[in-house]
Write a structure and sequence with these properties.
Number of strands: 22
CATH class of the largest domain: Alpha Beta
Pfam family, one: PGM_PMM_II
Structural class: alpha/beta
Number of domains: 4
Keywords: Isomerase, Magnesium, Metal-binding, Phosphoprotein
CATH architecture of the largest domain: 3-Layer(aba) Sandwich
Number of helices: 17
Domain Alpha-D-phosphohexomutase alpha/beta/alpha: 55-194, 219-319, 331-443
Family: Belongs to the phosphohexose mutase family.
Cofactor: Mg(2+)
Radius of gyration: 24 Å
Strand content: 15-25%
């Protein structure tokens, strides 16, 4: 058997082993190195998958599978990121500070403590939140503590074996997530640390600060103000999806004088294994099955679900036509209702010049709401790092169940306050003898019928995504769903004041719209389809929607087949 003792990738892995402070990943990598040295092709391939690339630091920070190697999430990579961030901040100001939060995923607490120790060692004031808490509490703390930056250790709703590292900026950025060119500037510092320093030689200090409970108290007070006392009570089921939302959500309800709600016991406490779901995302099929079961038992009028770090929120309502007895609302439907409510409240206070905002892949329905209430409507690129930066924002959302209902307090999507705001909306409706389903019908009667759908083309070979996007640009379909394509907008070089991004927008003759873009976090191409029609033409709209989806599916499969 041929050994690989002198293979360059084995040499790289040995060098990594020397500086890895984590016993688990060091042991895992040591086994791979020994097997590769002994001639194992499988081990050699695995080393290539771990070291041929580096987990890129971008506007979403870092996110990836936990494991040893430069292409995985681990203590070496986090240490380099922490010191790189610290050096970036020290270049910008004399005495920077960073507040650090973490959720219940594997190693989140370890990565957070490493970050605090290394930032303190670099001369940056480091403030660690007192325990695992939701991402929106960290985003709130950046502003509340007037910190220069924030770090949240989380992979949000990613698979169980992932973790991540999100960065926020204070000051003029007001606690929003980083955007270009800051991401590249931080990445350059991280790269220099990785090239020049051993993690074991980076200075550490353990005398960093630990924030007291007043930070969470202040967040709870601000969130509970969204739920006025004395409102009509509903039977509610809540699920934290094995994440960190329950404690904070429960405290907000108590502060508002609401009392207890039914919580799904199997999913109530943080559990990094996410044992009851195949994928810890409320949007995934089966994720709400336990919530549906508890709701049927309790006669719940509303289901509120957070994702594991509680920055996203999903709603389900009673529906006699559904096998589960409940229907999960789409992200767009929740966004419409929250946006409509926010617009009415802004109008009632005489506010002018405010903005409703959503991402370019979200439904265009919010534009109709803004028009009715004399508010500006703003579309942004995908991601709350863009939504949160809209001037004079009243409300913002993205269809991927992210909502920003209190921009003066938190500049990021916030599943806790979004859930509280929706509960208040539903309670107000009940006081008037209405249900959430009635509100949706009222929206249609007021603004028209909006139908949305998505098509995801998942691949194992990323070149297929590039090929489909190229074909969409060079030989695009002329008809979709029996509707002529009248215009194609390419965002590759920026468009309508938006930064450049790899996305296309197809506008059809009846006003329907298709957005096409590669996913930023998963190996798939996503199509977002939106059809608009008068309230009385719903069936036709649904037929058009189905036709567009079918044509896009056929187009993509034809391109993939030619490649394979």
């Amino acid at each position: 058997m041929t050994t690989h003792e002198n293979d360059p990738i084995v040499t790289t892995a040995r060098a990594w082993l020397v500086q890895d402070p984590d016993e688990t990943t060091r042991s895992e990598l040591d086994t791979l190195v020994r097997d590769a040295e002994a001639g194992s092709e499988i081990a050699l391939d695995e080393l290539h998958s771990r070291f041929d690339s580096r987990l890129a630091f971008g506007t979403a920070g870092l996110r990836g599978r936990i494991g040893a190697g430069s292409a995985r999430m681990n203590r070496v990579l986090v240490a380099q990121a922490a010191v790189g961030l610290g050096r970036f901040l020290l270049e910008r100001e004399e005495a920077p500070s960073v507040v650090i939060g973490y959720d219940g995923r594997t190693n989140s607490d370890v990565f957070a403590r490493d970050t605090a120790e290394l930032l303190a060692g670099a001369g940056v004031r480091a403030i660690l939140l007192p325990r695992l808490l939701p991402t929106p509490v960290l985003a709130f703390a950046v502003r509340h503590l007037n910190a220069s930056a924030g770090v949240m250790v989380t992979a949000s709703h990613n698979p169980p074996k992932d973790n991540g590292y999100k960065v926020y900026l204070g000051g003029d950025d007001a606690g929003s997530q980083i955007v270009p060119p800051v991401d590249s500037e931080i990445a350059a510092h991280i790269e220099r640390v990785a090239n020049d320093d051993s993690v074991l030689e980076l200075p550490r200090r353990t005398d960093y600060e630990i924030a007291d409970e007043s930070v969470l108290d202040a967040y709870v007070a601000a969130a509970s103000a969204l739920l006025p006392e004395g409102g009509e009570r509903l039977e509610v089921v809540y699920t934290a999806m094995h994440g960190v939302g329950w404690e904070t959500f429960r405290r907000v309800l108590a502060a508002a004088g609401w009392g207890e709600v039914a919580s799904v016991p199997e999913q109530q406490e943080p559990d990094a294994a996410f044992p009851t779901v195949s994928f810890p995302n409320p949007e995934e099929p089966g994720a709400l099955d336990l919530a549906f079961s508890l709701a049927r038992d309790t006669g719940a009028e509303l289901i509120i679900a957070n994702d594991p770090d509680a920055d996203r929120m999903s709603i389900a309502i009673p529906d006699g036509d559904s096998p589960e007895g409940y229907r999960q609302l789409t992200g767009n439907e929740v966004g419409w209702l929250l946006g409509w409510d926010a617009a009415r409240r802004a109008s009632a206070t005489g506010e002018t010049g405010g903005a409703l905002a959503c991402t370019i892949v979200s439904s265009p329905a919010l534009a109709k709401v803004a028009e009715k209430y004399d508010l500006r409507f703003v579309e942004t690129l995908t991601g709350f790092k863009w939504v949160s930066r809209v001037p004079r924002l009243v409300f913002g959302y993205e269809e991927a169940i992210g909502y920003l209902v209190n921009p003066d307090v938190v500049r990021d999507k916030d599943g806790i306050t979004a859930g509280i705001a929706f509960l208040a909306l539903a309670a107000d409706a009940k006081a008037e003898g209405l249900t959430v389903a009635d509100l949706l019908e009222g929206f249609t009667e007021t603004f028209g019928f909006f139908a949305s759908d998505q098509l995801s083309v998942r691949v194992t070979d990323l070149s297929i995504i590039a090929a489909i996007m190229a074909e969409l640009r060079q030989n695009p379909p002329q008809v979709l769903g029996e509707q002529v394509v009248t215009r194609i907008d390419d965002f590759a070089n920026g468009l309508q004041g938006l930064p450049a991004t790899d996305a296309l927008r197809f506008v059809l003759e009846d006003g329907s719209r298709v957005m096409a873009r590669p996913s930023g976090t998963e190996p798939k191409l996503k199509y977002y389809i939106d059809v608009t029609a008068p309230a009385g033409e719903r069936d036709r709209a649904r037929e058009v929607l189905a036709g567009i989806r079918s044509d896009l599916d056929a187009f993509s499969k034809n391109v993939a087949a030619r490649l394979g």
